[in-house]
Design goal:
It is globular and about 50 Å long. It has one domain (about 50-210). It is α+β, with helices and mostly antiparallel strands and about 210 residues long. The chain has helices at about 20-45, 55-75, 85-95, 200-210, and strands at about 55, 110-120, 125-135, 140-150, 155, 165, 170-175, 180-185, 190-195. The protein has a 6-stranded antiparallel β-sheet, sandwiched between helices. A 3-stranded mixed β-sheet has the order 1-5-6.
Length: about 210
């Protein structure tokens, strides 16, 4: 097609039309949604699969709530003597129904203050907490070790958000929800262990004495 001056007029191609504003907005929302699912997807997916297992994020949430109460209980019993790891072994086995031992953290400056029952999700009546305090009453550093009977109910998530049982040679590291405390989580297949620390330096120092892979 030509105009009156003999110049050819190009008819606009249907594939060169201006993009639709609603289409652009929808595309942006899909991208944002994909990012949000990448962040929160494992948590959501885990909560939808309680019949097949329990996501470890739920256990971390519970440990964060229980941590303060366990420390306060230890402070209230300040006049009581420390527990020897061998002395705590029998109590731990009664609470969890598993052959659990209490790690000795004296080599890194922590002493065992108490052992008590807790109700971790997934092992409500078969879990316990060990409370370690930094050596000396002026040292308000704490290490809390939660232990629970593990029957394969605890789930970790891979890079694609797929639930998987926590491998026996795997240690997960993160932060307790709502605080800057470092947490390590591992399992030997029979006992799940979740250790909470005041800082990353204590976590690194305690890793070997605790027996974390």
């Amino acid at each position: 097609m030509t105009d009156t001056g003999g110049h050819e007029i190009q008819r606009p191609s249907p594939f060169q039309r201006a993009p639709s504003i609603p289409a652009l907005v929808m595309s942006l929302l899909l991208v944002v949604g994909a990012v949000l699912f990448g962040i929160y997807g494992p948590t959501v997916a885990g909560r939808l699969s309680h019949g097949g297992g329990l996501p470890l994020v739920d256990v971390l949430d519970a440990a964060a709530r229980m941590r303060y109460r366990a420390i306060m209980d230890s402070l209230e019993a300040i006049g009581e003597p420390d527990l020897a790891p061998e002395e705590a072994k029998g109590l731990l086995q009664r609470l969890t129904g598993r052959p659990v031992t209490a790690p000795d953290l004296a080599s890194i400056g922590f002493h065992l203050r108490r052992v008590g029952p807790v109700s971790l999700p997934g092992s409500t009546y078969r879990s316990a907490v060990l409370v370690y305090q930094g050596r000396g009453q002026a040292d308000q550093r704490w290490i809390l070790l939660f232990v629970a009977a593990d029957e394969g109910q605890y789930l970790a998530f891979d890079a694609r958000g797929r639930p998987r049982p926590l491998a026996a040679d795997q240690t997960l590291e993160g932060e307790l929800p709502g605080m800057e405390s470092t947490a390590l989580v591992w399992s030997d297949g029979a006992v799940l262990r979740l250790a909470c620390f005041e800082n990353a330096a204590d976590a690194e120092a305690a890793r070997a004495p605790l027996g974390a892979p």
